[in-house]
Amino acid sequence: MAALSFQIALCACEVQDSHFEDFESDITGWSIDPGGDLNAFFDCLEGQGAALIAAHRGGPHAGYPENALETMAALLADTPAIMEIDVATSADGVLYLHHDDTLERTTTGRGAADVMPWDEIARLRLEDNDGRETEFAPTRFEDALRWADGRTILEIDFKQSTRYEDVIAEIKNQDAETRVILIAYSLASAEKLHRLLPGAMISLSLESQSELNRAVAAGIPDDRLLGFTGIEDPRPRLFSILNSRKVEVIFGTLGGADSIDNDIARSGYEALYADIAAQGADIIATDRPREAYAALQAAGRAFDAGECGVTYTENI
């Protein structure tokens, strides 16, 4: 019965094993290339007094679904941003971009996201945040990682179906250790990720200096850490402590109905993004990357093309 329900949900179109080729030679718009040294990249941004945008789930908007290669490419056409993505695993072990435990909300599929083989997942079509079906198929992680080389930094969130070791193996295979950020929600997870990929930077939730001290005591150097400081209220004192230890500060304006992003959209006070940067946030994780970047630009807190490995290429 489960197999039958999956078949009903499938699109009757030819499976494409990879759609990376569609983007391989098309580098237009903004590019963020850390040049093999993420620490130097972040130090350069700090020296410029610039904050960076992290596009939650790749920056979905009308007609462009979350966790899709096409969506990330569309965002970079007009907005420099790093891309936060979610990595799930198919029943036959293929890593692909997907957030939920089930398929219903963001694809034309049904059922659990980890019980369908990749050849069936590849036939699905992604749906945007309004539930509209798009022409886009799910993206394999290896394609996203290859596409991002020279274009942007990927911030990787691991779903429950996904083994750290499998993601790390692909990162090593593509020699991408210095252009990814690995997300950890606990110190134990951060320790494991650091053991597996010691040269990578890790985003770890840090609520106090003592939590930072515990992470360093556990063997994770300050210069491998970014501190995720929550989504409720900016904490300038904590931002200052982390910055004094050369730990980049991430603050999230994303979330549900009561998120700061939604508060800004309702109030029209777009300058709040720049206010948060002025309080010491180095990276703003947001569901509104275009609006956040425009606010940083207006306040002089966005970087210009030609600085810190950030470039802009006209579409000619």
Report what the structure shows.
With 316 residues, the chain is of the alpha/beta class. It has a single domain (30-103, 139-299), classed as TIM Barrel (Alpha-Beta Barrel), CATH 3.20.20.190. Helices cover 32% and strands 16% of the residues. The chain has helices at 2-9, 38-48, 69-76, 118-121, 141-148, 164-173, 187-196, 209-217, 236-244, 260-267, 272-278, 289-298; strands spanning 29-32, 52-55, 82-89, 95-97, 154-158, 180-184, 201-205, 225-228, 248-252, 283-286, 310-313. The strands form two sheets. Strands 2-3-5-6-7-8-9-10 form an eight-stranded parallel beta barrel, surrounded by seven helices. A two-stranded antiparallel ribbon has the order 1-11. The N and C termini lie far apart (51 Å).
Kindly summarize this structure in a few lines.
With 316 residues, the chain is an alpha/beta fold.
Total of DSSP H or I helical runs spanning 4+ residues:
12
SSE class = alpha/beta
Order of helix and strand elements from N to C terminus:
HEHEHEEHHEHEHEHEHEHHEHE
CATH-scheme architecture: Alpha-Beta Barrel
- Give the end-to-end Cα distance, rounded to a whole number of Å: 51 Å
Q: How many domains?
A: 1
Q: What level of helicity do the residues show?
A: 25-40%
Relative strand content: 15-25%
Biggest β-sheet strands, sense, barrel: 8 strands, parallel, barrel
Unreliable sequence segments: 1-17
CATH homologous superfamily assignment:
Phosphatidylinositol (PI) phosphodiesterase
Overall radius of gyration: 19 Å
Count of beta strands: 11
Average pLDDT works out at 92
CATH class: Alpha Beta
Report the CATH topology name. Answer: TIM Barrel
Described by its quaternary structure, the protein is single chain
